[in-house]
Amino acid sequence: MNKRYGNLTIIIPTLNEQGNIGRVIGRLDEMYPGVRIIVADDGSMDNTEKEVRAASKRIDVTFFDRRKMRVHGLTASVVDASLLARTDYIVVMDGDMQHPPELVGSMYRKLSEYDIVIGVRIEVKNWGLHRIILSKGMAIISYTVFRARGKPVTRDMMSGFFGIRAGIIKGLARRRRKGFVMHGYKVLLDILRMADPGVSICEVEYSTFHRRLYGRSKLKIRRMIEVLESTFRG
Ligand SMILES: Nc1nc2c(ncn2[C@@H]2O[C@H](COP(=O)(O)OP(=O)(O)O)[C@@H](O)[C@H]2O)c(=O)[nH]1
Ligand SMILES: [Mg+2]
């Protein structure tokens, strides 16, 4: 059997993604033979688990049940899931089809050359004005602070779609666990803040940033505070 992507784990944090998750993992499995998927679920109240377990009969997908964990959040989910990965490379993506599965292949290839590969949205469609302002404002603050402190930056500081060498995120998860804003949602920001200065970074652009397929987004003002925590934590 073709296992071309056998050295890649895709981590998908989920919270109530029953309408999307089956399609996301189905697409990934189709496109990337041998890939392993970890769905890090924070206690979905819908049929997310059922969807994933049904798919696991055909697809190499693990349902990581974080229902009983003390700290919930996208960051905690990704950090903990990284420690379960048994591959050299990891890609993190959303479970709502907002991150194009087509990009994962080039991210994976670039990880042989770079430590971190960041999916960068070059066109944001269909967003409400307040969301654009909040998001852009936060991004500018983070970018400026990171630049001033000599930390790595990217055109999309708020990206939730990235690839990383497993050793890097696992190292941070083990040695600098407290540096992560675990209840937060910007795990990439924490990683960039804590990464070694010499870390190599590359960007891949994508333009099709659609509204989520089903369900609703969890953006709140609280998210802004978490971004500031991720930006300014020592
Ligand atoms: N594990 C976990 N996943 C979450 C949590 N909140 C959101 N997610 C997932 O993280 C991804 C991005 O969330 P979403 O609400 O779409 O954020 P947005 O795209 O920035 O609006 C989706 O796959 C969600 O299901 C959470 O608290 N824990
Ligand atoms: Mg989304």
Through-space gap between termini: 47 Å
The tally of strands reads 7
Broad shape: globular
Order of helices and strands: EHEHEHEHEHEHHEH
Count of distinct structural domains: 1
Low-confidence stretches: none
Strand order of the largest sheet: 3-2-1-4-6-5-7
Give the name of the CATH superfamily: Spore Coat Polysaccharide Biosynthesis Protein SpsA, Chain A
Structural class: alpha/beta
Strand content: 15-25%
Helix content: 25-40%
Summed over residues and divided by their number, the pLDDT gives a mean of 92
Tell me the CATH topology: Spore Coat Polysaccharide Biosynthesis Protein SpsA, Chain A
CATH class: Alpha Beta
- Rg from alpha-carbon coordinates: 17 Å
Count of helix runs: 8
Q: What is the second-level CATH architecture?
A: Alpha-Beta Complex
